[in-house]
TrEMBL record, chains A, B:
SUPFAM superfamilies: PLP-dependent transferases. This is Aminotransferase class I/classII large domain-containing protein. Belongs to the class-I pyridoxal-phosphate-dependent aminotransferase family. Pfam families: Aminotran_1_2. PANTHER family: AMINOTRANSFERASE, AROMATIC AMINO ACID AMINOTRANSFERASE 2. It comes from Torulaspora delbrueckii (Yeast). InterPro entries: Aminotransferase_I/II_large, Class-I_PLP-dep_aminotransf, PyrdxlP-dep_Trfase, PyrdxlP-dep_Trfase_major. Keywords: Aminotransferase, Pyridoxal phosphate, Transferase. One of its GO terms (molecular function) is pyridoxal phosphate binding.
Length: 493, 493
């Protein structure tokens, strides 16, 4: 596919507002002599910045407070990297090239798209990515499909354009082959759109938003087979797939109830290699199936580095990236150069410890090893949490089921009602929540993350908890015990 | 004015799209016991970040390569400041409170609004500020007035909403009382809007965008008297005033042709105090006249710290800030915490060297002293540039006039045509530009920064050059001499 073919195929997806975007440039492309003095651009000289160098004190692994090494940025040093004269200056709207190239390396190695004309664009975090994508594709007349439970702020991102969100039924099950988007439901929805009473007044959807791995809030991961089926439906009904993947790298090693603290990442008898992690542990992106260029993938440094950086990236076909870049020119322009430099300098430092064919390979290797250490830390916290939940009286009495996730930050606890509730489930869930808060734990109720609370009223009887934020193992364990007590209190009332 | 009164007064200014913005939150406000364990928020623990501390190596003044001191951020230290556990975490969308408070201190001390119910909001640079403001106030039916020459990317920010930009005639003169927006023209425009043929199909303007001090590209600064007149017109015709002020602090000391390198900032016999600088050198913002809450002021750290931070702030009445914050929730959310922490930590370090009533006063003092050092560096570069321009043969032959600016990064050179050109001025300017490029200098042509090139065809015969970016004095001097030669070549052809 050439850029022109992509343009022809995907222009019809653009929002009405996309055409208003005509960034103005006042730079000429005139040829100039080599000793040209540039007095045209409104850039401050880098010697007007109060900072001349920055040292980053890095740790070797999560929860290790020892300083492992120092990565430094000077004003001009290391022109291959992002020295301060560059990163603290105005810079390329799409992101600085060294970091862009690294992001391309990650996509191209871990989730190589099934076509060639793809590109990446940095953004100010995935919230910013989504805002820009929905603004570029959605109008008041647009319908966007999304999992019935989702990261609810996305709903407001869609609604900000005037568009409508429609939920897709999910299978909330521990069976890895079945969990996530209900394919039969989705097929029926798309095949019969115009005759379904509650949706017939809406345009046929043009986009599916999905958190395909370690879904928020459910922790569900779509199997490759389900991904293939969804991609085929997207082809048949000409949908874009917006794949949000903040948690995909945080893949847990399998849980072993007999040895609850077993962790493949740290198991010395196994020694999980980078290759094993990439090929066997991770689930492949929709991009790897994407022969048409219809997948937009969202990656972020928020969970793998730090959220406060507000740094993320978008991978998509070149035409889509061009439209998003065009929008970025009239909105935020480049993301923080300080954030970009901190990430890039850290990854260069991680790479400097690796042996590889070239510097980029070394950086990739160093970065993935860091990410594996994170996945290991999350696996350990998952282990601690499961162990603590499974040792409660409430679990032994079958008051709840843990929807065991295979990746991510979230664990959902599904209520097993002793007798099917006759009253309002939402009311009972709210009561359970009050008891749990009284016992000293704060969680999120399923229905709070439903696209449509009525649509999901039957399946919203779960609690979402995160293993990511707690201070330590003891706090996680104590919280699980308190949750267990809450269930006992509710069901003994 | 209460928030409700502001809401009543300013709701009618909101764009149609403002009402689509309903950020979704899933946090309850439930009361909880003091030992509550929070498993609800999807935040990674700060020990999952690879960085535990950052050192900033700071200089004492611009163009000084010596390290003056080191300012450090640790993971938890200094909870009054912005430790990494906080700044690298998800944080308040409006900006972290310590930095917000500092920004309020700056506005409240330097340009105290003439009413009480104002507030500030951080953004990802002034381009982002403007995008959010125009999206909140402009629709396809909106008309925005702006100086006929302006920072041209703003035009695309306005047009992105579908709105229309209309130019205001400027007086391009070295007379400080007269320069900038032509008040008679503006008055006539507003009084006769519906009967002016070229504008009668447009709605009456609801906003003026102005770079009131050290205007880009003209370098003009509006006198206080002109500001009062414009504010009175805004009151009469119910306009918002969007005051963009990236350069206002970069105020030059007066130029002395007899002692061209004289610089009040460094003149030991004068010793300019912070008080002198704030009260006598700076021109007061429209906010100081604003009894109604109709002024929106844009400040930025781009020119005073570094552009790559992408960090700026907006000051306006509380209702407007609330609407902008609401939009920010569905777009970028918080600006880079790394950028916020770098700025705040630096300012804390600057403040630690000052003696003052409290820490905030000390920080303000330390910051303003840094800003004065910048203004001094810009004054020196202005001096070097004027001196070099005035010693050219072209100047001595009266081929050009320097539109002497009193602040900012830009100097405009107005062409003095020996005989009024009969042909197309734009064509002649393009010819001059080609000659100057051939001689080895790149500048910007006036018409490239015109809102409407036809409207400004008579007055666009100037070149804009910046003193900010050149490597050193020698390069600035050489560039000015080359420009002079260009004029001689053009007029001797």
């Amino acid at each position: 596919m050439s850029f022109e073919e992509l343009k022809e195929r995907y222009s019809k997806f653009l929002s009405r507002r996309d055409k208003f975007r005509n960034p103005i440039s006042f730079w000429d492309g005139d040829l100039a002599p080599p000793d040209l003095i540039g007095l045209e651009v409104g850039l401050p000289n880098e010697n007007l910045f109060p900072i001349k160098a920055i040292d980053l004190h890095l740790v070797d692994k999560p929860f290790d407070d020892k300083e492992a090494f120092v990565a430094s940025m000077d004003r001009y040093d290391n022109p291959e990297g992002l020295p301060i004269a560059r990163s603290f200056q105005y810079s390329e709207t799409r992101g600085m090239f060294p970091l862009i190239n690294f992001c391309k390396k990650v996509i191209g190695t871990v989730n190589k798209p099934a076509y060639d004309e793809w590109d990446v664009l940095l953004s100010n975090g995935s919230s910013d990515s989504m805002f820009k994508i929905f603004e570029t594709f959605c109008d008041e007349s647009t319908t966007v499909l999304m999992e019935e439970f989702t990261f609810s702020p996305v709903i407001s991102n869609v609604q900000n354009t005037g568009a409508t969100c429609v939920p897709i039924k999910m299978e909330l099950t521990t069976d890895p082959a079945k969990q996530g988007i209900d394919i039969a439901y989705l097929t029926h929805l798309l095949e019969n759109w115009t005759t379904i009473p509650q949706y017939s007044h809406l345009n046929k959807p043009k986009m599916i938003y999905t958190i395909a791995t370690g879904q928020n809030p459910t922790g569900m991961t779509l199997s490759m087979e389900k991904r293939r089926q969804i991609y085929a439906l997207a082809q048949k009904h000409d949908l874009l797939i917006l794949e949000d993947d903040p948690y995909g790298y945080l893949r847990f090693s399998p849980y072993d109830p007999v040895h609850p603290l077993k962790n493949l990442y740290t198991d010395e008898s196994h020694s999980l290699t980078v290759e094993d992690y990439l090929q066997k542990m991770l689930v492949k992106s929709f991009m790897t199936l994407d022969t048409d260029g219809r997948v937009i993938r969202l990656e972020t440094f928020s969970k793998l580095f730090a959220p406060g950086l507000r740094l993320a990236y978008i991978a998509a076909n070149k035409f889509i990236i061009e439209r998003l870049l065009n929008f970025t020119e009239v909105t935020t322009r480049a993301p923080s150069g300080a954030s970009q430099a901190i990430v890039y300098t850290t990854i260069m430092a991680l790479g400097s410890k690796e042996t590889a064919a070239d510097e980029m390979d070394a950086m990739f290797l160093g970065w993935i090893k860091w990410v594996m250490k994170l996945a290991s830390a999350y696996t350990h916290r998952r282990n601690v949490t499961f162990k603590a939940l499974y040792e409660t009286e409430a679990y032994k009495k079958n008051f709840f089921t843990v929807l065991e996730p295979s990746a991510g930050m979230f664990i959902d606890i599904k209520v097993n009602w002793p007798t099917p509730p006759t009253g309002d489930k939402k009311e009972l869930m709210s009561q359970l929540n009050k008891i749990i808060i009284k016992n000293g734990v704060k969680v999120v109720l399923g229905h709070k993350m439903a696209v449509d609370q009525d649509f999901s009223s039957d399946s919203a009887d779960f609690l979402r908890l995160t293993v990511a934020y707690a201070k330590d193992e003891d706090q996680l364990t104590e919280a699980c015990h308190r949750i267990g007590k809450g269930f006992v209190e509710l069901f003994n009332m």
